[in-house]
Amino acid sequence: MFESAELGHKIDKATYDKQVPKLRADLLDAQFDMGELKKYQVIILVNGVNGAGKGETVNLLNSWMDPRHIQTHAFPPPSDEERERPFMWRFWRALPPKGKIGILFGNWYTDPIVNRALKKTKNADLDQSIEEINRFEKMLSDEGALIIKFWMHLSKDAQRKRLKALEKDKDTRWRVTRTDWTHFEMYDKFRAVSEHVLRHTSTGHAPWIVVEGADERYRALTVGRILLEALRKRQKIEQERGWKPRSAAAPLPPATDSRDLINSLDMSLAMSKKKFDKDLEKYQGRLNLLTRDPKFRERSLIVVFEGSDAAGKGGSIRRITGALDARQYQTIPIAAPTEEERAQPYLWRFWRHIPRVGRVSIFDRSWYGRVLVERVEGYCQEGDWMRAYAEINDFEDQLVRNGAIVAKFWLTITAEEQLKRFKEREKTRFKRFKITDEDWRNRKKWDDYEHAVCDMIDRSSTEIAPWILVEANDKYYARIKILKTLCDRLDDALR
Amino acid sequence: MFESAELGHKIDKATYDKQVPKLRADLLDAQFDMGELKKYQVIILVNGVNGAGKGETVNLLNSWMDPRHIQTHAFPPPSDEERERPFMWRFWRALPPKGKIGILFGNWYTDPIVNRALKKTKNADLDQSIEEINRFEKMLSDEGALIIKFWMHLSKDAQRKRLKALEKDKDTRWRVTRTDWTHFEMYDKFRAVSEHVLRHTSTGHAPWIVVEGADERYRALTVGRILLEALRKRQKIEQERGWKPRSAAAPLPPATDSRDLINSLDMSLAMSKKKFDKDLEKYQGRLNLLTRDPKFRERSLIVVFEGSDAAGKGGSIRRITGALDARQYQTIPIAAPTEEERAQPYLWRFWRHIPRVGRVSIFDRSWYGRVLVERVEGYCQEGDWMRAYAEINDFEDQLVRNGAIVAKFWLTITAEEQLKRFKEREKTRFKRFKITDEDWRNRKKWDDYEHAVCDMIDRSSTEIAPWILVEANDKYYARIKILKTLCDRLDDALR
C-alpha cells in the first residue's frame, strides 16, 4: 500500500506557486456548488503517520476553501456523555449535514489501529473493527455521503527526520510528545497494522488515498487535486442523472403457502380484568425494582414499539412508564423527520436519542419505519429498505455491546378488531383518538403490511435483540405479556 | 407565602375518585390541543420541600397525560460537557420545543436556594441569581412559553412525619438519604431562603403556585386543576386573538443632528500591502501562540462578525482561522433558522454553538440579526427586537462570567465602496461571490440599517463585550485592526 508513497515525491516552488491559485479557485467553486445543491455531504478522513502533515493538511483545506462551511472535528478523549454511549456515538454526532464538508481527524480508524499496535487488542478484534467500519462506511455511502480518506505516509527514515526537525524549531517543538517517539520506536509494528487495515478498508465506495507526506508542496497539491476531482465527479453525476447507490437486491418473495408468522398467532389469547389488575400491580412493582437495581446504573434500556394502527401502543407504553420514575425515562414518538434530520443519514435521528447509562428510552415507532411504512408506501427505494435490515442489525449490535438491553414489541391485532377500534374511537370524546384518513388508507394495505412485518421479523429478530410478537386483540393480555417480558429481560441481564 | 399551604388541606377518597376521571380526560384533551397548535411550549417547574411529593407529582402528570409528548428532565450533577459551559446551558438544552410539555425537576432554582441555605453564597449572590432568573423567565414568556411553577410545601412537623413514614416502609426507604435529614435540621433556614426566592420570583408572567404536599389526593387534584386551567386559558387566547407579549417600548429616535457613530468614522484609514504582509505574519503568529497558551485551556473565545454586505467578513474570518489549528475552532455561518430552531426561543440556536473551554467559535453573523435585519425588514415585532438588547446583554454576560472572551466586530464600508465591490463581484468568476437581488434590495435601506447599527452599538457595547468598529473600506487596514484587537483582548484576558 505504501510503496508509491516512499519514492520521495517533490514539487518545486515555481510549479507549486503556478498551480495553487487556480486550484484554490476551483476548490472554492466546487465547494460552493455542493453547498448550493445540498444533496450530499462530504466526509474527509485524515489519518496517517505522525509528522506526515495531517494537521497541516486539515489547516490547509480550511484555508483553501470557505471555512464557514467546513466542520472540522478532532476527537480528544471522550467526554462522559460520550463514554456512556456506544463507541460510534461521538462520530454520529460529528457527521456533517448535506451541503457541508466535515473533516474528521482522528476518527473511527484511530483506536483500532493504535490499540492493535500497542497489543491492547488481538487480531480478531481488529478484524471485527474492520468489518464494522466497512459496514458503517458502506451505509454512509449508500445514504449519499461522499467519503474521501487520506492516509498521510512517511517512510521510517523520513519520519525520524521529520520529528527531529520539528523538535529543533522552537515554534514547533511543542508538537512532538514523548508518545510520538514511543510510537516511532514501534514504526514497523504500526506500519504493519496500518497496512492491514488500509488494505481491508479500501473499498470501491471509500478507497484510501495514500499521500507521501515528506514534501509539503507535493502533499498539498496532491490532496487538493484529489479532493477537487472527487467533488467535480460527484457533482457531475448529480447533475446528469442524480446519484443512486448501486443495488442488487434479490426480491423478497411472500411465503409460498398462506401461513406466516402473523397469521399463525393465537389471536384468541385473553385475560380477565381481575387477573390483569393483580398482574399489573405485580409486574409494575417488579419493573420498578429492577430499574432501581444498582446494577442497572451501568446498563440502559431501549424499548421499541411497533404495531398496526390502534393496536394499543400508547396504552402499553403508559403501563410501562407508570412503573418508572419520570426522571429516568424519555418516550420518543417518531413522526416525520425534521429538516435537520433529513440532512443526515437515516439512523442519525435515532442515534441522537440513545440513552445514557441508568436510563430508559421508549420509542413509539422506531427505525423500523424504513422496512414498514417506507417500504409499503414506497417512500424509499427498494435498495434502501433492503439494506436497512443489515444496518439496523449493526445499530442494535452496537447498542447491546455497550450494555443496552433492547426490547422490541410488535403488537398484532386482527383486521376485524382494528375496524371495531376505529369505530369506537370515532365515537369517543378524546380528541387524541381521532381517526385520520391515513388510518383508513393504511387499512387497505393490510396484506402488504403483513408481508413487510414478517420479513422484518425474519431479518431483524436476533438473539441479542429478539422481536416479541404480542397478540393484542385483548388489551389486558397484551399489556401483561409486555410487562412480564420486559421484567424477564431485565432480570436476565442484571443477574 | 406558605401560610395557606399549612392548613392541612385534604380531599377524601370519594371526592377524588369522582373528580379524577374527568380531570384526566380534560387534561389529555388540553394537551392534545396545544400539541396540534404547536404555537407555544409549556414549561412546568416542580420544586419544593423534600418529601412534599415532587417526584410523585411529576410521575402523576406523566401518567395522567400522554407521556409521549412530555419531556421530563431531572438535573443530576452536570456532565463535563455541561460544566465547561455557562450554568444555564444545561437548562437551554432541556427546553421543550413548541407543542410539547417540558417538566423540569431540580431546575435553575435548586442551586441558588441550596447554596444560600448552606451558606456557600451570600445574600448578594442570591439576589443576583434572582434577578437573572427573573430576566430569563421573562424572556421565555416573551418568546411564547407558558411557564407554570409548582412549589410543593410541607410544614416542619409534616416534613418530619413524612420522612419518618417513608423510612418505615421498606419500598420507599431508599428515597430518604442522610442529606434529607441534614436538610431537615435546617428546615427554618431553607424555609426563609425559599420564601425570599419565591416572593421575588413570583411574577405576573410566571407566578409560583404553592401546593400543600401532605395529602396526596389534595396535592394531585390541585396540581392537575391548575395545569388544566392554565392550558385552557392560554389556548383560548391563542384561538381568539393570538398570544402576544405585552410591549411598552418607547420609540428609539434617530439622532437629532445627522452625526452618528458610523458616519463619524474615518473611512480613509488604509494600509500599504507591504505593511499588511508584515503585520499579518506578526499578528497571526501572536494569535497562534495565544490560543496555545496553557491558560487558554480554561477559557474560550467567541468572535462575532457583523457588517454590511461585502464589507469583508469572510476574508477577515479566513485571516483569523489561518492562524488557528483547525481542530480548535468552528465557524458558524448564521442563515435562516431550521425548523427545530424555530420551535425554540430565539437565542436557543446560538446557545447550541457555545464552545467548550479551550475552543474558539467564530460567528459569521450572529444573535444581533434580531436588532439588525429582523428589525429593519420587519421580520419581528418592535417589542421583540426592543427586548432583544437586554436579552443579548444577559446572554453575553453569562458567557463572559463563564470565562469566555467575547469579541464583536462591526465592519463598516461606505455606500460607494459597497457599490464598487458589488460591481467587481458581478464580474468575478468565483460563484460564491454572486450578488443576489437581496443584496441590491438591502442597499436601498442603507439609512435604516445605519440607524439600527447605531442603536445596537449604543445598547450592546458593554465593558465585558465591547463592539469594535472596523473601518473596512481598506481591506488591509481592516484585517490587521481585527487581528490586533483579538490579540490584545486575549493578551489582557490571559495575563
Keywords:
homodimer, 495 residues, alpha/beta, Rossmann fold, five-stranded parallel sheet, 10 strands, 51% helix, elongated
Number of helices of chain A: 20
Spans of chain A of at least 5 consecutive residues whose pLDDT stays below 50 are none
**Sequence of strands across the biggest β-sheet of chain A:** 2-3-1-4-5
What's the CATH H-level homologous superfamily of the largest domain in chain A? P-loop containing nucleotide triphosphate hydrolases
CATH topology of the largest domain in chain A: Rossmann fold
Distance between the termini of chain A: 48 Å
The share of residues in extended strands of chain A comes to 5-15%
Q: Report on the biggest sheet of chain A.
A: 5 strands, parallel
Please provide the count of β strands of chain A: 10
Count of distinct structural domains of chain A: 2
Q: Could you describe the 3D structure shown?
A:
The structure is a homodimer of 495-residue chains. By secondary structure, chain A is α/β, with parallel strands linked by helices. The first copy, chain A, has 2 domains: 3-240, Rossmann fold (3-Layer(aba) Sandwich); 273-494, P-loop containing nucleotide triphosphate hydrolases (Rossmann fold, 3-Layer(aba) Sandwich), CATH 3.40.50. Chain A is 51% helix and 13% strand. The first copy, chain A, has helices at 13-37, 54-64, 80-83, 89-93, 110-117, 123-142, 156-168, 178-185, 187-201, 216-240, 273-291, 313-321, 339-342, 348-351, 373-376, 382-401, 415-427, 437-444, 446-460, 475-494; strands spanning 42-48, 70-74, 101-105, 146-153, 208-212, 300-307, 329-333, 360-364, 404-412, 467-471. In chain A, the strands form 2 sheets. A 5-stranded parallel β-sheet of chain A has the order 2-3-1-4-5, with helices on both faces. In chain A, strands 7-8-6-9-10 form a 5-stranded parallel β-sheet, with helices on both faces. The model of chain A has no long low-confidence stretch (mean pLDDT 93). Chains A and B meet through helix 1, helix 2, strand 2, helix 12 and strand 7 of A and helix 1, helix 2, strand 2, helix 12 and strand 7 of B.
